[in-house]
Amino acid sequence: MEGSRRVQPLARDAMAYVLAGGRGSRLKELTDRRAKPAVYFGGKTRIIDFALSNALNSGIRRIGVATQYKAHSLIRHLQRGWNFLRPERNESFDILPASQRVSETQWYEGTADAVFQNIDIIEAYGPEYMVILAGDHIYKMDYELMLQQHVNSGANVTVGCLEVPRMEATGFGVMHVDETDRIISFIEKPADPPGIPGQPDLALASMGIYVFNTAFLMDQLRRDAATDGSARDFGKDIIPYIVEHGHAQAHRFAQSCVRSSFEREAYWRDVGTIDAYWEANIDLTDVTPELDLYDREWPIWTYAEIKPPAKFVHDDEGRRGSAVSSLVAGDCIVSGASLRRSLVFTGARINSFSSLNEAVVLPDCTIGRGARLNRVVIDHGVKIPEGLVVGEDAVQDSERFRVSEGGIVLITQDMINRLD
């Protein structure tokens, strides 16, 4: 294969399999009713839309999504927004809940088991390659380039990796590689991560992205399923086994990261905590954000609701509908209120004399008159009472709401209902 030209992209012979069953417990109440991949992000999308859009934009036309915990809102979103792939064009989109297909009592035990339980569905499509993806990260990546490296290297598995400062890699699975980026050991959350040859201050952290030849992966999944004591997990079992007994290759994210002319660095975020989630959303309000959502060459697909435009009304002193350095989605009415460095999802009603500063407002919220909200995340459908003040008294905030380590206040309707 190396040195030859292939007319058809490898992505056309690949299936993307998105692991979207995660609880996302560090997002606290944001994941009480939805899985982490279903959490809203960026004004109109969900987190999972990034992995799915990457697959689609890379040319992959067979996609499966494995769901498990609190999956209803995720499945509904997938059905509404991703049902345009057509079997008559050799395309497919399968939602694969943990449905006890292998055993009537067995849910997905781990990430590898979430693929193993659907082997028959995968093999019926006959893809030559499998691209295994985590469904809970924000990034833009061309998987075709990773597929090409996988084929050209002759590896049994290719692992997507981030270059991170070495001592920041202690919370990741870390790849210890040689000078050719062949993985010589895989270490889960090491206290002293190994550096990269020639770059001793950096380490290669796993992104939870794997490329396999399908036949090889199926053999490994069957072997692992028959192994007593396995956690049925890619990071804990499958990848370490291949590192020891086969050829595992690292693929550096910088080689396939998609960047517009406005994006200076390779962008990848795990928005798995309230602070990280708030920061990644608020960063989008910058004049030139690190993540360019306006890149028409690599669109982020999602369920696009048919809604009227955003509307700003009233122009009196102290009661002026305005937004500065903010993103405001469709069907929002900013009625005599002021927004600064805020991100507001679809369907918000922000009433007179209220002010939002560095606020992330999820869909269908109502902000009552005279409310002042600073550095907050407001969950879907919350009705903020008139005159509520948040973000000015840390002690009072912590008594009424969820306050993160970084001082971000999470507000849900249940919390509002408990107010005196």
TrEMBL record:
Broad enzyme group: transferase
Pfam families: Hexapep_GlmU, NTP_transferase
GO molecular function: glucose-1-phosphate adenylyltransferase activity
Binding locations of alpha-D-glucose 1-phosphate: 108, 173, 188-189, 206
Feature type site, description Could play a key role in the communication between the regulatory and the substrate sites: 68, 107
EC number: 2.7.7.27
PROSITE patterns the record matches: ADP_GLC_PYROPHOSPH_1, ADP_GLC_PYROPHOSPH_2
Functional pathway: Glycan biosynthesis; glycogen biosynthesis
UniProt entry keywords in alphabetical sequence: ATP-binding, Carbohydrate metabolism, Glycogen biosynthesis, Glycogen metabolism, Nucleotide-binding, Nucleotidyltransferase, Transferase
All residue ranges annotated as the Glucose-1-phosphate adenylyltransferase/Bifunctional protein GlmU-like C-terminal hexapeptide domain in the record: 308-411
PANTHER family with a match to the protein in the record: GLUCOSE-1-PHOSPHATE ADENYLYLTRANSFERASE, GLUCOSE-1-PHOSPHATE ADENYLYLTRANSFERASE-RELATED
Subunit structure: Homotetramer.
Free-text function comment from the UniProt entry: Involved in the biosynthesis of ADP-glucose, a building block required for the elongation reactions to produce glycogen. Catalyzes the reaction between ATP and alpha-D-glucose 1-phosphate (G1P) to produce pyrophosphate and ADP-Glc.
UniProt similarity note: Belongs to the bacterial/plant glucose-1-phosphate adenylyltransferase family.
Protein name per the record: Glucose-1-phosphate adenylyltransferase
Organism, as annotated: Mesorhizobium liriopis
UniProt lineage: Bacteria, Pseudomonadati, Pseudomonadota, Alphaproteobacteria, Hyphomicrobiales
Gene it is expressed from: glgC
